[in-house]
Amino acid sequence: MAIGFRHHLQQQLHRLAVNAARPFVSWTEPWEDVDPVSFFMLGPSCGFRERFFWSDRSGGTILVGLGSAYAIETEKADGRFHEVESGRRRWEKEIESYGEAAAPPLLFGGFSFDPHRPRTDIWRGFPAGKLVAPAALLAVRNGRTTLTVTVPTDRGEREWGRIGRLLERMDECAAVPARLPRLVSDKEEEKERWLAAVREAIASIRAGALDKVVLARARRLAFAGTVDAAAVLMRLREQQPFAYLFAFEQDGRCFIGASPEQLVQKEGETCRSVCLAGSVRRGAAMEEDERLGAWLQADRKNGEEHEFVVQMIGRLFSSVCETVEMPPAPQLLKLPHIQHLCTPVVGRGCRERSVLRLVEMMHPTPALGGTPRDRALEVIRSLEPLDRGWYAAPIGWVDSEGDGEWAVAIRSALLAGNEAVLFAGCGIVADSDPNSEYEETNVKMAPMLSALGVMNDG
Ligand SMILES: C=C(O[C@@H]1C=C(C(=O)O)C=C[C@H]1O)C(=O)O
Q1: pLDDT single digits (tens) 113-172
Q2: Entry's NCBIfam families (predicted)?
Q3: Which of 202, 214, 302 to mutate to test the pocket of ligand 1 (most atoms within 8 A of CB)?
């Protein structure tokens, strides 16, 4: 298929590029089944320096991007969402789109957690906000696969080289060998300092300065060789079947994870979110697991942590939607290593036209920042001993209708060469116990440890 398609596509794009009035053209074609992770794996060998991966919780929408045809980037601390949204609208005027989807291709993106905090070297290349239109986009939606190719009309030849190589190799696209290098060092980042920060946060909460704050910590692993994001993705796909899988890679640095937490989705006038806060580990046997789940649903401290999130998201949805639906009490979301209190929210008759506007209003929810928001952000800045970068921040995609889906980038790690930095945090309220919170961050790191082959529990 690829050889016939390659000639067809090259001809189409060449003809369009010569006649195009705009600086970019894209062409979308139905495509045969191809394994999305294998497609992701082809990127570097074809010369692409960027790779993107997104799979929603059901696996019904999988988007894989290679290369960057167009990027919108901002370092603005204030107004960053507005700036990327304006960039997105400009982008639509710069591209002509043909083939099966005569609409501009979607953009992948991410934001930093707190643009007011100075960036450290580990997050080099991950700005306050960035959206990318990939040069080649494989999209699987409701069992149908399409390939979209986007090229600049004046640099078509160079881009074409990479795309041509990709199409040639897609025919041989094989399963990914999930081999991972051996662990050589494992550094818990300043446990005592983190516990002291939690104690200080509890004291501030008890003194009435704020109600809740989420404090995170990092763990740095070094391996005997380069950690390949494709091998990690492959394992996450097997081990975390109900999570959002995401990867955002540039120049060999990859932010990757399997998050259970939707920030917001917009589909026409319907928007959705999930309040997720309050956690306990899974039990070894069914009886213990059910006992832990029942304890979680009855526990006052976890209920309080959760309620702050429900209040905020409920209020926000009510301000932009005609109707809002949510269950009266939290449900249990059971994941392979952990269970959470979970309240899904649906808003209908949404008046906002772009999902990025909703992302702006929602980030950070009290599940990742705290309550009240500004006070919590100040406490995080002064007490948390790490640069969160894109951890705990919005990651997702937006299309030309302004529709899209965004997750909160937790249960994640930054892969850079031989290193992986893992992140996890938890909500601190007046009744929190620092040692149990520390244990909870270990449970939250388990999915990434397991995907990296460091913890052997599948
Ligand atoms: C901050 C994280 O998770 C968040 C905190 C939770 C909690 O405190 O119970 C639960 C889910 C997430 O909203 C993380 O996984 O790093």
Answers
A1: 999 998 899 999 999 999 999 999 999 998 899 999 998 887 666 777 888 888 888 877
A2: isochor_syn
A3: 214
**Residues, the chain:** 458
276 three-class SS: strand
Q: Is the CB of 263 under 6 A from ligand 1?
A: no
Nearest ligand 1 atom to alpha carbon 278: 9
The secondary element (H helix, E strand) that includes residue 147 is: strand 144-152
The answer to whether residue 221 sits within a structural domain is yes
Nearest CA to ligand 1 atom 2: 425
Whether 65 is in the pocket of ligand 1, judged by its Cβ within 6 Å, is no
Q: What is the pLDDT of residues 265-286, one digit of tens each?
A: 999 999 999 999 999 999 999 9
pLDDT tens, residue by residue, 68-123: 999 999 999 999 999 999 999 999 999 999 888 778 889 999 999 999 998 899 99
Same domain, 119 and 218: no
Final residue in a domain of this structure, among 136, 170, 204: 170
Residue 212 a catalytic site member? yes
Contact 427, 277 (CB under 8 A): yes
- Rounded Cα gap, residues 135 and 132, in angstroms: 9
Please say which residue of 170, 203, 226 terminates a domain: 170
* Secondary structure element (H or E) that encloses residue 449, with its range: helix 434-451
Provide the terminal-to-terminal Cα distance of the chain, rounded to the nearest Å. 37
> What are residue 121's phi and psi, to 5 degrees?
-60, -30
Tally: H helices and E strands in the chain:
11, 23
* Residue range of the domain that includes 259: 183-451
Q: Tell me, in angstroms, the distance from the centre of ligand 1 to residue 198's CA.
A: 15
Q: What is the ipTM of this complex?
A: 0.98
Concatenate the DSSP letters of all residues of 52-79 into one string.
Answer: EEEE-TTSSEEEEEES-SEEEEE--SSS
Closest residue CA from atom 16 of ligand 1: 424
